[in-house]
Amino acid sequence: MESFAMDELGLAGQEGSCWGRMGRGKSSYDDTVDYKSKNLHAERRRREKLSSRLLTLRALVPIITNMNKGTIIEDAIAYTQELKKKVEVLTGMLQEMEVTSSEEEITTRINEIGACEEMKRCGIKEDVQVTTIEGDKLWIKIILEKKRGRFSRLMEKMSCFGLELIDSNLTTSKGAMLVTACVEGALGETFTVQQTKELLLQILKGI
To answer: Which GO molecular-function terms appear in the entry (predicted)?
Structure first.
């Protein structure tokens, strides 16, 4: 009986051991499946992110020769290099324009200095003369230093202050500009000789 009982116990022990091993094997299998499943999800997310970025890249590049991944990347690289070349060309052009602009400014400044010196050498000074010709019309004579854009600014300022030019003439000589014109007040406004002279002198100081 004892032997039978021991045999039973031994069998029971073996069965328990077998079931234990089977249980451990199942747990290991479940862990492996779970690990593989996580890897698959991670790989799927990576592929989806890559596909999304490729679509964005394809939308940014104007010319795509083929829709596969390798070609999209190659076309994007080529397009980037093309843009880089354009940037270099435009940068060079901008630098040339800046140099040209600086040279023009220097030339203009030299000319203006030359005009001023020539006026002094010839004894010419800036001056304003105003006389009445008929009714409210006035005849003006302005001598001013020859500077780039100064005549245009003079006309603009006179218009802003309400002086309307009926007729005007511009001549340049010996570094100076001579402006003669017939003017009257805009919108029927009346200007006296003294008012007009003071106004023109004020304008000359500002231009």
So the answer is: DNA-binding transcription factor activity; protein dimerization activity; sequence-specific DNA binding
